[in-house]
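ugh finaly. both done.
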Amino acid sequence: MTPNNSPSNLTMRPATLVRRVNQAGFGTVLSERRLKTHRQSDINTSDGKSVDLLKYAAWLTFLYFRDENKTRDYNERKRKQAEKNAEEVRAAQDIGELPAVVDPERKKASLASFRAFCETYFGEVFYLPWSEDHLRVIKKIERSVTKGGLFAMAMPRGSGKTVLCQTAVAWAALSGAASFVCLIAASAERGKDLLENIKTWLETNSLLQEDFHGGIPE
């Protein structure tokens, strides 16, 4: 600093300024290269050889509050955007009031009995009379879905065991008896085909749509 320390003459050579600042007890906070970048702003003396300390202090103060405001503005924008996104998610999830069930008694009976579910909503699929084997399998499926358990069944080809299992998946899902229903097939492609059949039922079966609005995909 020059001998005259009056406010109009607070100047310092760049090298001296770097050394003094770094000796202030805060570690290395200023380098000559960084100061050179700072000096591209209007902080130099008129001859360009020294730094006007008052101008430098004012410039650093301006940067501090400017960056602080930028951070505050960014955080505010981020908060508002998060609120907007959350509101859009809530709006998308709100599908409005579901239509009334067309036939509550029909639905209630079908939820209580897997056989009734098959006969009521899939009459065009199960159009032949049940055999004793069919009825035993239906009871075992119903018990497994509602109370848990495992069982294996073997029936002749073409007797409807696959479609019975597919219908059981739909019944378990629509009745809420199981939160997650597994449909396992001999291969991934076969599993996809079976699942597509169930989705088609849900999308096109008019009786299901009348009684199970909440379980019918858009």
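ok and the 2nd:
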Amino acid sequence: MNQTVLFAMLAYLNDLQRSIELSETFAEDVLALSKEVTGEQGGGCARVKMLDLARRHRVDAIKARAKMEAVTAQFVSRFGAERFEQEQAKYPARPRRSI
């Protein structure tokens, strides 16, 4: 049972990390696109909508990061910090890339 829980928690942490990366990258890309389309000082409805979209994706990343911290704390309390570090070492972080 503990092994199943361990792998489920690791898979969930991996999914959360990927979600954070995608949300942050998408938000950055939307901001860059909004500057390209409307200029640095440009305004208008399109710019406002793009900024709102980027903000929502950043909020999603913040929420996912909070979930990740909670699951990490559960993992450490259940299996220990040493085991968590061992499992993390098996799966190094992927480099960020633009969409």
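summary for the 2nd one i guess: Residues 2-90 form one domain.
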